[in-house]
Every structure is written in C-alpha cells, then in structure tokens.
Amino acid sequence: AQAVCPCSPVAPLLGEKGAMGNALLTTHRIACGHTDRGRMRSMLLADRLSDPTAEMVEALLFLQSQTVRFQHFAARDHANLTNIQEAEGRSLLLLATGFCILFGYTHERGDPSEPNDFIIAFLGALQRPQEFLQDLMALRAQVVSREKVMQLLPLVQDNEVSPGAFRGQDAEVLQNLAIFLRAAVACAEIYAEIRDSVAIGAVDQVQAALLLDGIESDQRRMIHAMGGGGNYEGQHYSNGHSEMELVHGPLTPLTENQRAAALLQVN
Asked: Which residues are registered as beta bridge partners of 242?
C-alpha cells in the first residue's frame, strides 16, 4: 500500500482500483514530490542555522557578565588609540569594522570612514555595555540586508578576525565578540539564501515564513528556552555581574543536551 499524506484532498480516492486511482496516485506523487523537495530544503536551511545560533548564545552567555571589562577595555584603549593599532593590528580593526557595519555604530563625526573611526565608534559602543548587550540580544539576523552581508563576509572570513587571533589580557572578551560576529553573519547569510529560495519557489513558503517572520531574535528565544531572561536593562554591579545573573544565577555554557533541547524549541 502506498503511504498517503492524510491531508491530501485525493487521499480518499487513492485506494480505489483502476485507471482513475492510478492516475490520481501518479499526480499526487508528482505534487508531493515538489512539496517535499521544498519542505526538505527549508528543513536543511533551518538545520544550518542551528550551530551559528548556538554559537551566538554561547558568546552572549559569556559576555553578559563582562560589562565592567567592556568599559575598562574601551576607556584604556580609547586613550591609546595609536598603540591599539600597533599592538592588536588588523584583528581589532576588522572586529570593530564588522560591528559598526552590522549595528550601524557611529561616532561624533558621523559614519566611520577611516580605520580609526571604526575603532572609536566600536569602543564608544563598549562604553555603554548594557545597550551594547541589548543590541546583541535583539539582533534579528533575518532582517540584515544582503548588502550588509556582502560587506561583512570578507571581514569575518579573514583569519585575523578568528577567535584565535586575539591575545593579551582582554583576549577572552575579544574572542567571544569575534565568535558572535562570525556566527551572526553566518545566520544572516543563510536567511538571505532562504529569501532568495522563496523568491524562485525553491522552498516551502509556509516553512520559510516560520523562519523569517516574527519579532523576537533567535538568540533571545533560545535563552528563554533555557530559562534565562536575556534582559540587560537592569542594574549592573562593580564585580561585572548583572542583575539577571543575581536573580537567575549565572548562565553557563550550554551542554550538548541543553543545546539540543533549546534548538528544538527555536527551530
């Protein structure tokens, strides 16, 4: 017996004998073939989102307790901008440029244009850590434009902005910022591919809408699925801990089981 989708309008007729039943069965197979391919492509694209989304969350879980280090790093290095470029080289410049493009950070002279402009704008964002973390939490990769994705891809694919490129006392903070940036761009690229696939009818529109629509970011949804609030607008204390940590306890890196459970709820 042939397996028939129960929601098919021809399902009641497919069991009938004779030419009518065979013709309907053939037509149903063709129709479901197209539908299944579109649904399968949607599922494969959604599956590709899982790892970078989890990487964004894991970076946020570390960064949410680093607000004081953000401010110290930004204040110290803003005062020694020339030394930053000599000591950190291209890695910090690429990281700063990536965040400025992704979030539209500017400085007092307007949009960054020179290398120092990007670093100044990025350090300015770090000096407002609660707002900065809220930007990271609220970012919806679904709405990042293809133009931005094309600008960002060469930056994040450069080895000098890989997490391992950062050294020194603030390396761990910069490494997690790099992880977040690279993962966010990876998600944005996949979402751009989903939009393109919808436009040419290559994916199931209903499935694609589940991924593209909505007002909440994937990383916020995953943290909510883990039981965290993800709200960085509360009080932050001198030891670098946030009010959210003090209420809920520190959010530690995901175990494999936690990651799998959270991904099921997000996707």
From this structure: 236
What pLDDT digit, counting tens, does each position of 93-115 carry?
999 999 999 999 998 777 887 88
In the block, residue with structure tokens 């017996």: 1
43: CB partners within 8 A, 6+ apart? 207
In total, the chain counts a number of residues equal to 267
- Is residue 155 within 8 Å of residue 58, measured between CB atoms? no
pLDDT digit string, tens, across residues 171-206:
999 999 999 999 999 999 999 998 998 888 887 788
Q: How far apart are CA 231 and CA 224, in angstroms?
A: 10
The conformation of residue 140, written as its DSSP 8-state character, comes to -
Q: Is the overall model pTM greater than 0.85, yes or no? A: no
